[in-house]
From TrEMBL:
GO terms for molecular function: ATP binding. PANTHER family: CARBOHYDRATE TRANSPORT ATP-BINDING PROTEIN MG119-RELATED, GUANOSINE IMPORT ATP-BINDING PROTEIN NUPO. This is ABC transporter ATP-binding protein. The keyword Flavoprotein does not apply. It comes from Nocardia lasii. It holds the Pfam family ABC_tran. It comes from the Bacteria. Residues 3-238, 254-498 form the ABC transporter domain. The keyword Magnesium does not apply. SUPFAM superfamilies: P-loop containing nucleoside triphosphate hydrolases. Keywords: ATP-binding, Nucleotide-binding.
Length: 505
């Protein structure tokens, strides 16, 4: 399919999210869209997929103008899309989610077996392993993304739109996805690929369009350097490495002792895990996603209760405390899944910025919230973190994905902490914001906070950590210095301990 977009514009009120966009996607090619958070990428895709009606402009498929009034029109025209935010129904199985919206009914009953077979055939054809009977809510985010991809490929798809498909994937899953995309384009499919990870874009794109504030600002080439691409995106040069003086660790700020958390089927998600974070240091937790990172973060916050073991903050046992009490005691928390644990979508940007402190002075006085103080704090956070919003009163759900993440980050950095758990802190944010967040994490450390950094990006762990702990099967299988070769960390991530006689040669 050859897709052409002419003068496409989307206005929300008097704000132009996309302004006179021209774009051509050739058949069998990967066309990447780069742009900072809020540039208008997802809005453009939503017009191509029939979710949003363009304010003006034209979409042409193989030279013929088309008009979509819903996603089913786009699907019928051969367009599939994987959204930036999952649209899965948690309590439904994988197969039920994949056939959602195109159910087959045989003699008045849902054809469940047909749906299972459809999943198995797509997942086999493209090498995307999936259990059709698993409930989506039980799956790690990486696997949920795979369900979305299988769903998008289940129609007669000629153009696949992937809106930040790799944001939630582990490095091996990313490599796998890039290979799958190669197979798709070899078979003649066109792909629109959105990512903030310049390495991936360079590796896979045939052509690149750069958006900024709703406008096409450049057509770039995959042979451009990362620095050139970053500069085109944000309109200034970006420092891609982190300046970091040596740490000066103090007393233990967070201590996790023999922590065990059992999963639903009685298997140990955390299996007697021990880990200590000192004040003034960043401890990076490396590991393949699904090895207990989520459970560890939630246990430290207090949203899951461990089956045994203890958690101490500054020497005080907090294991039995509720999350609010821990937050008041100095815990900061950036959750891996901002939609579920980080934001209240129906609340405004300002309300979300003060969720963790509106009950306290100076924002509250004898139980009455001081709206002026809240407003001042929100204005400052919006300016400091460059949150692209029409103002503190806008609903947070109207913000672009990366700007929602900035709201969470700004809130958690808005007051001093003794402990900060940062899970995937830069997921979905643009290169300019990554630079800023990394600097802030180092500044937190230098102000004496003990930082536990959980990240699926080994690059991020290596760039920021003073010490690296590797998690595997719910246990810390090794602690290494940040100058340890990647291969050694990779071995540990796969569960091979250095002293393991099975792997020693
Ligand atoms: N339904 C809506 N109502 C009002 N404003 C919206 C709506 N959807 C998007 N916007 C605004 O349009 C702009 C572009 O948003 P969009 O989601 O397209 O950005 P993006 O380039 O995908 O960013 P990100 O990289 O963060 O995902 C943002 O400023 C956003 O706040
Ligand atoms: Mg987006």
């Amino acid at each position: 399919m050859r897709l052409e977009v002419r003068g496409l514009t989307k206005a929300f009120g008097d704000f132009l999210a996309d302004d006179d966009i021209d774009l051509i996607v050739e058949p069998g090619q990967v066309h990447a869209i780069l742009g900072e958070n809020g540039a208008g990428k997802s809005t453009l895709m939503n017009m191509l997929y029939g979710i949003l009606a363009p304010t003006s402009g034209q979409i042409l498929i193989d030279g013929n103008p088309v008009r979509f009034s819903s996603p089913s029109d786009a699907i019928a025209a051969g367009i599939g899309m994987v959204h930036q935010h999952f649209k899965l129904v948690g309590p439904f199985s994988v197969a039920d989610n994949v056939q959602l919206g195109r159910e087959h009914v045989t003699r008045g009953r849902l054809d469940r077996e047909g749906a299972r077979q459809a999943v198995l055939s797509v997942s086999q054809r493209y090498g995307l392993a999936l259990d059709p009977d698993a409930l989506c809510e039980d799956l790690p985010v990486g696997v949920q993304q795979r369900v979305e991809i299988v769903k998008a490929l289940s129609g007669e798809t000629d153009l696949l739109i992937l809106d930040e498909p790799t944001a939630v994937l582990t490095p091996p899953e990313v490599a796998e996805l890039l290979e799958i995309i190669g197979n798709l384009t070899d078979a003649g499919m066109s792909v629109i690929f959105i990512s903030h990870k310049l390495k991936e874009v360079k590796a896979i794109a045939d052509s690149i369009t750069v958006l900024r504030r709703g406008k096409v600002v450049a057509e770039a080439s995959p042979s451009d350097t990362e620095a050139e691409l970053a500069a085109a995106m944000v309109g200034r040069s970006v420092v891609l490495t982190v300046e970091r003086p040596p740490a000066d660790p103090g007393a233990v700020a967070l201590e996790i002792k023999d922590l065990t958390v059992l999963g639903e089927r009685g298997t140990a998600m955390l299996d007697g895990l021990n880990l200590a974070v000192r004040s003034g240091e960043i401890v990076g937790l490396a590991g393949v996603e699904g090895n207990g990172q989520t459970e560890l973060a939630r246990a430290v916050l207090g949203t899951i209760t461990p089956d045994s073991g203890s958690i101490e903050m500054g020497g005080t046992p907090v294991t039995g405390w509720n999350p609010y009490r821990r937050i008041v005691a100095g815990l900061g928390y950036i959750p891996e899944d901002r939609g579920r644990d980080g934001l209240a979508g129906d609340f405004t940007v300002a309300e979300n910025l003060v969720l963790n402190q509106y009950r306290d002075a100076p924002l509250s006085n004898r139980g009455v919230v001081d709206a002026t103080a809240v407003r001042a704090l929100a204005d400052k956070a919006i300016a400091d973190f460059d949150i692209r919003t029409r103002g503190p009163g806008e609903l947070v759900s109207a913000l672009s994905g990366g700007n929602q993440q900035k709201v969470v980050i700004a809130r958690e950095f808005s007051r001093p902490r003794s402990v900060l758990v940062a899970a995937q802190p830069t997921r979905g944010v643009d290169v300019g914001a990554i630079e800023f967040i990394h600097r802030r994490l180092v500044a937190e450390r230098d102000s004496g906070t003990g930082v536990l950094l959980i990240s699926a990006e080994l690059d991020e762990i290596l760039a920021l950590s003073d010490r690296i702990a590797v998690i595997h099967n719910g246990q810390i299988v090794g602690e290494v210095a940040p100058d340890t070769p990647r291969e050694v960390i990779g071995q540990l991530m796969a569960g091979h301990r250095p002293a393991d006689p099975a792997t020693a040669s």
